[in-house]
């Protein structure tokens, strides 16, 4: 369990990743949409906070049917976001500040406007026909199988001209590539090299577990746990359309491309249960460096459930597999809206003290909440396609709240999504000055974490207790920390089952507690988290 002497820690083990949704971070040309120059102008803020790596959601040319996750050119920059010169400048400015840049790579599907697809759909004997998943109808003319689209409706789209169906796991405008085709593989590996040659430090690979589908296209089985409020996609268990054994060969090949370069890193977006998720580290770690772990996003916010899952994850990691944690992203409700404002600091402390690389989502550091978007302003296709299910992702994608000026300092034009009414109170400017704010808390937490090897690379040992507290130690050589997090709004007593701890509180959700000595039974207020440096 103790880390071996030889373990070498790289930037992506020790660092903190910050996700930017580029449409919403900072607008520089006042068209109401964020852009690359905008991001550049805010890098000093990220550096000030202690962020070490930035991941930006797609910035490539795209018809924006899925806001950039439908790519029409893998080697360009959408004019909305700027130019390739702007990108080179961004990369340079990030590196100048000693930070890393991670791009979004979307290899599962292209836009239906991508030249590859335009060719592929042009005729049955086009050389690129087999680059996508084309199938004949069943004898009665119906779809090749029962697979559903994540965004609602069937996963198959009929092409009148060539009299076949093509498969799209997401929108009709996002046809899936055929990863069984070696030409497709090579084309995408070349895309990776294009950006790696430029000096990009890594990729976050979109829907990695979708990339290969069952060869025989067997029907997916019904989901016995389906309920009406869920997305229609959940009616079936995607047993044959996702997480197929062959995916690991593909991921290993992608990893080999990464390994042609120094210290590059690949994250996989994978929504699977722990025992499936950890297989994406690959055999002898020849897979993804970090298969995204969404446990803190998906599990109930409850101390015993989460403690169990944290331990299950720690126990399931393969030797040499480095853990990671996420509390929010552009597809999920914001943490403050999910667990409440009073628990959001506890969540931050959990994210930043567990063993493994944390990924933060822009705006969470100031406690931004999901912003209610009136029906006639909804933009997200997931929301528009299933209007009765409340699945729009817009509320978590609203403009960053920088200051109290018009449009929160995001833009001088009307932003593409509206701001909340309270942005004059909830913004970076106000919170920077307030030592009790969410932002000040995040910053101090990040600083402590990055100063203390025990907190960024130390090993993890549970400190079991009953009740509403998550409790664990982080240990590196002689340095030991005890982390206690009360997930309840009511006070709770930490009564360790097999040990006794004594030390000094070095960081707390209520800073007034800092500096206090504690020992044996430690009482916590509701919504309180503390970090104790053990004697
Ligand atoms: C991923 C992205 C999501 C997108 C989908 C299709 O889940 O995070 O935003 O809609 O893939 O590309
Ligand atoms: Mg702009």
Automatic annotation (TrEMBL):
Domain Glycosyl hydrolase family 13 catalytic: 19-397
GO molecular function, one term: hydrolase activity
Domain of life (superkingdom): Bacteria
CDD domains, per database record: AmyAc_OligoGlu_like (cd11331)
Keyword Magnesium on entry: no
Alphabetical keyword list: Hydrolase
InterPro entries xrefs: GH, GH13_cat_dom, O16G_dom_2
Record flagged with keyword Hydrolase: yes
Pfam families membership: Alpha-amylase
Family named by the database record: Belongs to the glycosyl hydrolase 13 family.
Protein's UniProt name: Alpha-amylase family glycosyl hydrolase
Taxonomy of the source species: Bacteria, Pseudomonadati, Bacteroidota, Cytophagia, Cytophagales
